[in-house]
Amino acid sequence: MKKGVLGILGILVLFILFFLFQSAPIDPAAYAPLKGPELAGVLAPNHLLQQAELLAQGKINGPEEVALDSQGRVYGGTQDGKIIRLLPDGKLEVFAETQGRPLGLQFDRNENLIVCDAYKGLLSIAPQGTIKVLATSAEGGPFKFTDALDISSEGIIYFTDASSKYRQDEYLYDLLEAKPYGRFMSYDPATGQVKVLMKNLYFANGVALSPREDFVLVNETYRYRIIRYWLKGPKTGTHEVFLDNLPGFPDNISGNRKGTFWLALFTVRNEAVDTLHPYPFLKAQMSKLPKAFWPKPKPYGFVLALDENGRITRSLHEPTGKHLKEITSAREYGGDLYLGSLHNDRIGKYKLPG
Question: What is the pTM of this model?
Fold first, then answer.
């Protein structure tokens, strides 16, 4: 009996030693996040997003970003590499297949759908569904995780490469490693030139131009903040923190070009992740485990309205996560807010007051 117990303990010790000395898939850095803000005042939870209409429920797989064309048709990129089009009568059809993972979507002035595909790069899809690759690298560095975009009135495409190290299916490694691999760039259709405007961003995500296009906002998801990059005026080419210590993980951001920015938060802050961040050794050990054992995001629907000075003016919640959750994009069209999700099977349509 005693020999059997000792044998089991010996095997357990060997397993632990093997686990500890096994190389980790990440090289994490220490990071001490600020304590997240209390959900009170303008951030106080409500149930407003439970009023949202659900489009294509159960028929679409992970429409991370949503765009509408001039005919009011709704587009969303899905996890299997398709871009689905929802017709006004409720029918769904496949508009295009990128063979990758379409994320950011927006129409240019010629009705081409510009797409940030996580695996394929920056794409342009003609109204007939023909796909053209615009760019796949910058400064000799290939895009690893093409993510989000906005387009200026002159046709300049501003977009992000979330991580130069980790691909879309490895985004949790980027979270734990806590190092700045993201880039923010511009693409000029007239010349085909890509310019790197900012480097060393902590998961460069959503992009939104201001109404006067004098600055552009870029989300740093894994630092819970938004950066403002100046395009015009005395600060041209410089950047600063626009809003810091957000109450959740900022994903995409969009502007209605009337002074309001809509910020989609993937979920609220995760206390376990924040507690773990200062300890690289523990993060390295966690990265060796199957992702089923990692801290889970709380099912929560969360959108913020911001003004041009970085003030939060309104918050929209769905605390149960049953109606809408993991919202990754919020874009205003015709008085409605269309809500995409990385993993959910629906598109939200929330009627804005007034």
Answer: 0.94
